[in-house]
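I am writing to request your help with a piece of structural work I have in hand. Here, with my thanks, is the record as I have it:
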Amino acid sequence: MLAALTLAWGFNWTALKVALNEVPPWTFRSLCLGLGAAVLFAALRAGGQRFVVPTGQWRRLWMLALLNITSWNMLVAFGVGFIPSGRAAILAYTMPVWAVPLSVWLLGERITGAKLAGLALGLAGLGLLLVESFSGLGRAPLGALLIVGAALSWALGTVLQKRFPVKMPTGAYTAWIMLLGGIPIFIGTLLFEDWRDLRRVGTAAWMGTAYNVFIAFAFAHWAWIKIATSVPVSVFSISMLLIPVVGVVSGMLFLGERPAWTEYAALVLVLAALLTVLRPGRVRRG
């Protein structure tokens, strides 16, 4: 499941870039969340599964939806427009840099030497890209900061997801947080954008949008929640650092992006961080 999630979200950075070249960001996220949630609810109904929210769980659902869905999706949607998709993927998956200390603080997870090493290596990769982004006006530091903000929001939401678990099946929980997290975005679309702009959207952008709806949202969000609630946050978070590698390669193959030396160096650091926690035995000990 982790391998499928890695490919799904890795290639999505290319699909995201293609779609947002033509589809306005608020409208794009509304389509992804609205249709993605609809697909999940339909699948639950067809499978005879219940999706009623248990008593006392609404407050937790709203909190997690705003952090993991609303903030993440809109910060990424605006940030990816300023910087290459590969760079955005690397910055977004610095989430473990923030998730590891948050999990120690809020969950009481044990911090090991391997986790500290992974944290340090991930932080080094983040620092390298941020310093390079600020070194010249043409590097769009605003885009980098928006993506890092998304990573912070996602990290906090992931930790709180384990700190305050919602007592629902994974499928129903995923569908509900996508729908609830989408509500502020639906309102933003009505206030800031015009749906008639979709008439000018081309085939490639529609294909990128469809990939987001069915693969990156309906499937990948379900898989992410299934994994994130089953293993320690620190191990899960750092293991997902392979996703930006797929994102960089995808951008090179399909968008013709040519990463700078700093991005290659950051990827090396990210892969080194990955290896510190994925050795046989260490994952089992968590």
About this structure: The CA atoms of residues 133 and 139 lie 5 Å apart. The chain has one domain: 2-285. Residues 2-285 form one domain.
